[in-house]
Amino acid sequence: QVQLVESGGGLVQPGGSLRLSCATSGNIFRGVVMGWYRQAPGKQRELVATITPGDRTNYGDSVKGRFTISRDNAKNTVALQMNSLKPEDTAVYYCNARSTGASYWGQGTQVTVSS
């Protein structure tokens, strides 16, 4: 059974930083695209960032230059470093693992940016 477990969310002031981490199980990490998505209240889930097995990255326009996604193939984890956070970054952040014909989601972790 595949499991994705996020951690690292919380409350931070505007301009601050947070680091999210996603641990995977079920031998799925190798060969899959890992990603982070977020969903704010009343809005659709949107792309934050993805990273391929070869470390090719892709970012949503609203986070480019502020967020960095990385993966540790030895530990089967993916991280999201979030800097210069803004109130509009407030959302539930979800970890995703995607391969041909399958997509897996974590339970989400809340990030709140507020003074």
Which percent band covers the strand fraction? over 45%
Which blocks of ≥5 consecutive residues have pLDDT under 50? none
Order of helices and strands: EEEEEEEEEEE
Instruction: Bin the helical content.
Output: under 10%
Number of strands: 11
Oligomer: single chain
Largest pleated sheet:
7 strands, mixed
Tally the helices: what do you get? Answer: 0
Gap from first CA to last CA: 40 Å
Calculate the mean pLDDT score and round it: 94
Which term fits the overall shape? globular
Radius of gyration: 13 Å
Structural class: mainly beta
Task: Explain what the structure shows.
The chain has about 120 residues and is an all-beta fold. Helix content is about 0%, strand content about 55%. β4 (about 35-40) and β5 form a beta hairpin.
Task: Please tag this protein with its features.
single chain, 115 residues, mainly beta, 7-stranded mixed beta sheet, 4-stranded antiparallel beta sheet, 11 strands, globular
